Amino acid sequence: MRVVVLGAGLIGVASAYYLWRDGHDVEVIEQHAEAASVTSYANACLVSASRALPWPTPSAHKTIWRALTDPSAPLRIKKFFDPALWRWGREFLSYANPRDYERLTQAKLAFANFCQRELEDTLLQTGVDCGYQQDGLLYVCRSAATMAAAQARAALVGTHGYAVRVLSRHEVLALEPSLASSTMVGGTFAVTDAQGDSRAFTRELAAWLGTQTERPVRFSYGETVSAKLQQRGRTFQLSTGSRELNADAFIVALGPQTPDFARMLGTRIPIYPVKGFSITVPVKDAARAPQRGGICEDSLIAYCPLQSPSGPVMRITTGAVFSGQDNGFSDADFVAHREHFETLFPGALDWSSSRVEQWACQRPMTPSSLPIIQRDSRFDNVYWNCGQGHIGWTMSCGSGRVIADLVAGRPPSFNLENMQQL
């Protein structure tokens, strides 16, 4: 079967791998010059399956109020009068109740666990090197309030099979001595969470697929796909401007751009782009820098040590801004990254280096915060693989395996009953 995948981010390339593994003739089309150029370019690089909790909580109304009124809040709403945000928000709030929170929690944690196993199997089968380490992630608390919340979260995910240890300050320092000068009071340690360079994974897997001797996957870069309805909306034609696309199946994995593409097919995709910010900073003093990735529960900054061609660097991410299609950023957007990281690890990084890289990208969030993995209801050769939101790295390979199941017409490897539906 000939299959065309739209998008060469984490989800698109992972989908291509599983489709190739099933024996299909696969082409991936990407508008940028190489894979992982937008949402997958500079994310947190944490495979934090134990943190895969739904965004719509029973207390979501309080979170939204703070997002509207507190400019220092990690989650902010800047485009309040956007009709698309209101439609998305109504559905989001419909899930913000104890019954749906329990249902979505069970589904999301189970799917994240399934996806991490698939990611690790993909690394094993392909030999792709992205610095993957499954030696746990550390979630640091600097106050009694966040420590209590972290303990409650550890107990919750523990009922779903995740091993999360609650640690005293002394126990945290045994794992991460570089926190000694911080005001950290304790934390939790997610034993099976992991880290790795997601951009490297995406690009290395794309290269691996393109060099296979049997049915190498074709990657067509610098091409933008558009859709046109025909025969009064009963059929459609896809083209790139220079050629028409013909295939037995089309996989749409365009991340936050998926709703725009879907509108050309007359379909509404319940995704809203949520902007996050990351900064990558060279390590100046390795003894002061963290040796594993983690999250500060008080500030909600995530950090991950990575290796770059020029030496060790630290990826630091935070923020969730509802700002519509605005994907811009300024130096002011990264002040919190520096302030909060320095509170934990003073003097570790070279903030004055010319190699400091700032980045912003939009994450494709669904109202339920679970992804959309399904066949289109009108066009039986169109499949949607999108909405993985803020944990696309964690969910990439599991999403790819399930979409390949659907294309093959076999029962999906994971029960999709509680996934976001169109």
What does this structure look like?
With 422 residues, this protein is of the alpha/beta class. The model has no long low-confidence stretch (mean pLDDT 96). The chain has helices at residues 10-21, 60-69, 83-94, 98-126, 144-158, 169-175, 198-210, 258-264, 335-344, 392-408; strands at 2-6, 25-30, 46-47, 75-77, 137-141, 164-168, 186-190, 194-195, 218-221, 226-230, 235-239, 244-245, 249-252, 272-282, 294-296, 302-308, 311-322, 357-365, 372-375, 382-386. Helix 4 packs across helix 10 (392-408). The protein is 31% helix and 25% strand. It is globular. Strands 4, 5, 6, 7, 14, 15, 16, 17 and 18 form a 9-stranded mixed sheet that branches. A 6-stranded mixed sheet has the order 9-2-1-13-20-19, with helices on one face. It contains 10 helices and 20 strands.
